[in-house]
Specification:
Chain A: InterPro entries: Hist_DNA-bd, Histone-like_DNA-bd_CS, IHF-like_DNA-bd_dom_sf, IHF_alpha. Chain A: GO terms for molecular function: DNA binding; structural constituent of chromatin. Chain A: This is Integration host factor subunit alpha. The complex is a heterodimer of chains A (about 110) and B (about 90). By secondary structure, chain A is of the alpha+beta class. Chain A has 3 helices and 6 strands; from the N terminus they run βααβββββα. Chain A has 2 domains: about 45 residues, Irregular (HU Protein, Chain A), CATH 4.10.520; about 60 residues, HU Protein, Chain A (Irregular). Chain B is built from 3 helices and 5 strands; from the N terminus they run ααβββββα. In chain B, α1 packs across α2. The chains are: A alpha+beta (about 110), B alpha+beta (about 90). At the A-B interface, β1, α1, α2, β2 and β3 of A face α1, α2, β1, β2 and β5 of B.
């Protein structure tokens, strides 16, 4: 599978094409959306985007880690981490193609 | 914060835009990300994070209620890695 990387530029371009704002304003809006989400997460809020997924901040306690190279024990300090849970809609969308292939294989096998 | 609350905040910050345009913009962005992942592409938003897909091999699972074996086909799952800047922001103060 050839893998491409989508960045802010493509998202702004899509907004520009779909909505018809200027390229500059489209780019600003993409940035504003990411900022609003980041701000909410920094406040410790959960961010739920229906049919896409949710972002949640979790508090992790201190634990002892190890430097894999030297074997030395190092404390990992308590910290806040972000977890993303994809919605079923997104999961299904990602596996649609694969499911179609599987279904075809199953038909061929029976 | 939900998607509609996000739209509400954007509307307050952009009084010159129609609400329906803001809805369309938010929809377009998440749709583009989903579409990219469905194609197998990666989505990298510097400072925020990166979305990618990871492949899970086929395995034999079990129905936890009945204990019965079930074949689980190969599948892909979306994955998000928090960007450096956002990770640091979550841990300041």
């Amino acid at each position: 599978m050839t893998q491409n990387t989508v960045t802010r530029a493509q998202l702004s371009e899509a907004v520009y094409q779909e909505v018809g704002l200027s390229r500059n304003e489209s780019a600003d809006l993409v940035e504003t959306i990411l900022d609003e989400i980041s701000d909410a997460l920094a406040r410790g809020e959960m961010v739920k985007i229906s049919s896409f997924g949710s972002f949640q901040v979790r508090q992790k306690g201190e634990r002892i880690g190890r430097n894999p190279k030297t074997g030395e024990e190092v404390p990992i300090l308590p910290r806040r981490v972000l977890v993303f849970r994809a919605s079923h809609v997104l999961k299904n969308r990602i596996n649609e193609l694969q499911d179609a292939v599987d279904a075809a294989n199953a038909r061929a096998a029976s | 914060m939900t998607k509609s609350e996000l739209i509400q905040r954007l509307a307050e910050r952009n009084p010159h835009l129609y609400q329906r345009d803001i809805e369309k913009i938010v929809g377009t962005i998440f749709d583009e990300i989903s579409e990219a992942l469905a194609r197998g592409d990666r989505v990298e938003l510097r400072g925020f994070g990166a979305f990618s897909i990871k492949r899970r091999d086929a395995r034999t699972g079990r129905n936890p209620r009945t204990g019965e074996s079930v074949d689980v086909g190969e599948k892909c799952i979306p994955f998000f890695k928090t960007g450096k800047q956002l990770r640091e922001r979550l841990n300041t103060d």
